[in-house]
Every structure is written in structure tokens, then in C-alpha cells.
């Protein structure tokens, strides 16, 4: 198997996760890494001995042994780094969301597609065994899909393990709608393609501090004639919840905590695990993403969503955050 060199630009939580997963990959090797913050670079170097730190983002991207650039910085910095990778002739694997300004992202997608470089956006549901099983089941006429409920609830936002990513607390590029609910909107896009339309939305922000991210959102989607509700809240002492329920004629499928798929029906009202899924679904999904990335870089068929798919998700997410009648 050919091993491709990856530049990891951004060494926060998701960048470090990539360092961990790439170390276990047979086909992807990190050959350069960089972060704008010197303390973050130092921490990564201490935690990942031998990490090939670059002198700058440009140095990390332009190395001859770099085949693909993984962009893992906050959303407002995605576009310039993607453009730098394209200018260097490198493939791009970008974190979501692609951006926060739809017009700017439309221009970026057009540039990337004109360049001909291979490109994808990191939505792990693209390589999830649970999502594969879900997709097969809801497509069966016998399941009789009636509706979808996507909901998240957080005790606090950002979550404790995200405390260092202060941008997540701001409305300009953060918030749980972009960071978490976008995965479920991508899931709807994967299942129904272009037949996903936003029917209405409402969003709430705290009175202070100014510019804080949302504390509640509610929306309704039409997914090829199937109604889907989307909701999220922050606050309270209850445990965090991240789930999507697919309601069928005689059963429900519950995709929970990212990687678990349960079946709820008359024989299992409390739910039972979908058989045949990996024992360690989280690692399987991440390694699946890297296997699909390897296929993309090799020019083989793959399941990763491209920039155009991420733009479709972004359009719906930003419309939720700025519904008609709301400005700023």
C-alpha cells in the first residue's frame, strides 16, 4: 500500500485526534504539523515525540513529501489555508464547517473545483458503520420512514474538554449548531441528497456577553417529503445528549453518541443494539475516514463528501442561524 504524506495544520483537539489516528493508519503518515500558537505547538511536540513541526503554515504545506493538507483550524481561517494548499498543488482534507459566509464559501468551492485538486471535508458519518446500517434500513420500503428527530442538549457550551477553543463560544464562527448539528444535517444530505429543504427556524442568544453563540435553536426540514425536526439547547444539569431518531411504521432507529445505533420496537421498547457493528465503533469510524482518504488520494472510489457537499450543509446551517427577520 502506498503511504501518503499529510500536513496537519492546526493542533487543537481535532488536529491532535488526527495525529493519534494517523499513527495507527497504514496508508497515511503525518510528515509536517503546525499551529499558530507557540504553546499549542510545544504541547503537541511534548505529547507526540518526533512530531515533524514546521516553521510556518506555508513551510508545512509546501514540503515535497506532503500529498494532502488537513486543515484543522477555526472556520474563519479555513479559506486562506485551503487556497494555500491549492496553490501548492496539494489535495485538501478540510474540517467542517467549510466556512460561515455562504458567498465566500461559494467562491472557494468554485476555485477548488477549477483547480482539479482532490478535496474532501471531514464528516465522520461518511465512514460510520452505524450510519451505513441506518442508511440501508431506512431505504427499505418495509421500514416505512415517517419522520426524523435530531436533537442535542449540552450542560455547557463549549464543553469542558473544549475550553481552550474559545472561538466555539462566539457567534461569528462557533456555536453548537455549526459544530454538532451540522453533522446531522450532513447525514440528511447523505440520505436524501439535494431533497433537503429548510422549512423554518428560530434561534436564541444570551443577552450577554455581546456576540455569544446561540443557546437554543429549532428548525424543521423537509427531507424528500419526510419531516425532520432539529433542536438544540444549552443549560441544565441533565447529561449531554446527541441523537437522531428515525421513526418508522413499526420501529425506530436511534443514532446516539455518534457511533451507537439502537433499534426500538415492540419486542425491545428500551432498545437493543443493531447487530454486526464494530466493537470499537469510534476507532473504526476514524480509521474508515483515513481509509477513504487513502482511496481518494489514489484516485479510487470513496465515500468522503466533497466541498460542494459541505457547502450544501453550510447553506442550511447558516439559514438556521439567521432565519428571516433576524439580523446580526
Structural key phrases:
about 325 residues; alpha/beta; 8-stranded mixed β-sheet; 13 strands; globular
Write a brief structural summary.
With 328 residues, the chain is an alpha/beta fold. 34% of the residues lie in helices and 25% in strands. The model has no long low-confidence stretch (mean pLDDT 96).
Structural write-up:
It is built from 9 helices and 13 strands. The chain has 328 residues and is an alpha/beta fold. The protein has an 8-stranded mixed beta sheet with strand order 7-8-9-6-10-11-12-13. Strands 2-1-3-4-5 form a 5-stranded parallel beta sheet, with helices on both faces. A hairpin with a 2-residue loop joins strand 12 (260-265) and strand 13 (268-273). The mean pLDDT is 96.
Q: How is the topology of this model organized?
A:
Elements: E1 4-9, H1 13-23, E2 28-34, H2 38-47, H3 57-62, E3 68-71, H4 78-87, E4 91-94, H5 102-115, E5 119-121, H6 129-138, E6 147-154, H7 176-192, E7 196-204, E8 216-223, E9 226-234, E10 241-247, E11 251-256, E12 260-265, E13 268-273, H8 281-297, H9 307-321
Number of strands: 13
**How large a portion of the residues is in β-strands, by DSSP E?**
25-35%
H/E element order: EHEHHEHEHEHEHEEEEEEEHH
> Structural class of the helices, strands and pairings?
alpha/beta
What is the average per-residue confidence, as pLDDT, rounded to a whole number? 96
Q: Could you say which overall geometry the principal axes of the C-alpha atoms support?
A: globular
Helix content: 25-40%
Poorly predicted runs: none
Number of helices: 9
Distance between the termini: 50 Å
CA-based gyration radius: 20 Å
- What is the makeup of the main sheet? 8 strands, mixed
Spatial ordering of strands, largest sheet: 7-8-9-6-10-11-12-13
